[in-house]
Amino acid sequence: MGMTRRNILSIGGAGLVAVAAGKAWGQNLRYPDPAIEILDPSFAKYRIYASTVEQLASGMRWAEGPAYFPEERYLLVSDIPNNRIMKYDEEDGTFTIFRSPANFANGNTRDKEGRLITCEHSVTRRVVRTEKDGTITVLADAYEGKRLNAPNDVVVKSDGTIWFTDPLFGINGNYEGEPAKPDQATTNVYRIDADGKLAAVITDLINPNGLAFSPDEKELYVVEWKGTPNRSIWSYDIAADGAVSNKTKLVNASDFGALDGFKVDRDGNLWCGYGSNGALSEEPTEIAGRKVYALKGKSEDLDGVMVFNPQGDPIGFIRLPERCGNLTFGGPKGNRLYMASSHSLYALYVETQGAV
């Protein structure tokens, strides 16, 4: 049975359900959508009055790395624990398996020639490119003769250089890959030059995660998973030759929030996946006769997308029923925000476009 706005398409054998237009979780029908919270008046211009958050698909275990392909009008999204990449077709609404197994793929992006770049963050532990004929080209799998840790997120600069983060998440346990000891002494941010040479450009962050460039590409932003005292976004100046300097803290997730993957819009705002960082209270609370170490902050108050202006100040929040791991801009006009969030894929039309 084909997908329509009133039908639900079950994909046999995959344990996956694609849902139409947010019906599965009770999408808000009011305009404007109360899930879109304006934290500063400057964010109001990005909200479209008659646009609401839509749930497009569900059934994943940990959704990550969305990448949009405008020529074919589809979105790819990693389902890491299920070891596959999923495909959402924007024209007919179907949600199908694009690649399985996928070496526990995490971050994905599109290069300037329209080819898929993927971070395989376990087993193979490499960055690869899918050619137009479907063959796989390995771009990086080792640095200075030692295997990479677990490539996580990736971005392509306009000069064709590829930048990616290499934390430990994919080799820390069995859920998102296979346990392994790291070969690299540090968790780095790397750059792949046009000639294929691999350079470690940032080596002092503990588990770098999401990354993105400013619209003019003169700044690189990187999430540090183990920031002090909270998760942080660091800003770096990028020279014309790719040299990195002037490390500056731009954002500090001080409300027990977990910054994750993010994208920058044409005005320089950072649209960041957000949720609880899992930190526990120092003292237990008695709940139903049991002493429980509760979370600091409530997941239902933190799950969604936090938007920061170029100065690092929060200006907007998109509330979601699930923790958002990563996001991207897509759609025919580039103004549809796709949000990969735990089990599901969500979308929202906004009055801006991605910087790339």
User: What's the number of extended β-strand segments?
Assistant: 31
Strand content: 35-45%
What is the CATH class of the largest domain? Mainly Beta
The CATH topology of the largest domain: Neuraminidase
Lay out the secondary structure.
Layout: E1 9-11, E2 16-18, E3 36-38, E4 54-58, E5 63-69, E6 74-79, E7 84-89, E8 95-99, E9 105-110, E10 116-120, E11 126-130, E12 136-140, E13 142-143, E14 146-147, E15 154-156, E16 162-166, E17 188-192, E18 198-202, E19 208-213, E20 219-224, E21 232-238, E22 244-252, E23 262-264, E24 270-274, E25 285-287, E26 290-292, H1 299-302, E27 304-308, E28 314-319, E29 326-330, E30 336-341, E31 344-349
Antiparallel strand pairs: 1-2, 2-4, 3-28, 4-31, 5-6, 6-7, 7-8, 9-10, 10-11, 11-12, 13-14, 15-16, 16-17, 17-18, 19-20, 20-21, 21-22, 23-24, 24-27, 25-26, 27-28, 29-30, 30-31
Characterise the protein shown here.
The chain has 356 residues and is mainly beta. The protein has 2 domains: 1-55 and 263-356, no CATH class; 103-259, Neuraminidase, CATH 2.120.10. It has 1 helix and 31 strands. It has one helix spanning 299-302; strands at residues 9-11, 16-18, 36-38, 54-58, 63-69, 74-79, 84-89, 95-99, 105-110, 116-120, 126-130, 136-140, 142-143, 146-147, 154-156, 162-166, 188-192, 198-202, 208-213, 219-224, 232-238, 244-252, 262-264, 270-274, 285-287, 290-292, 304-308, 314-319, 326-330, 336-341, 344-349. The strands form 8 sheets. The chain has a 6-stranded antiparallel beta sheet with strand order 1-2-4-31-30-29, with no helix packed on it. A 5-stranded antiparallel beta sheet has the order 3-28-27-24-23. Strands 5-6-7-8 form a 4-stranded antiparallel beta sheet, with no helix packed on it. The protein starts with 8 loop residues before the first strand and ends in a 7-residue tail after the last strand. 44% of the residues are buried. Mean pLDDT is 92; it is low at 1-15.
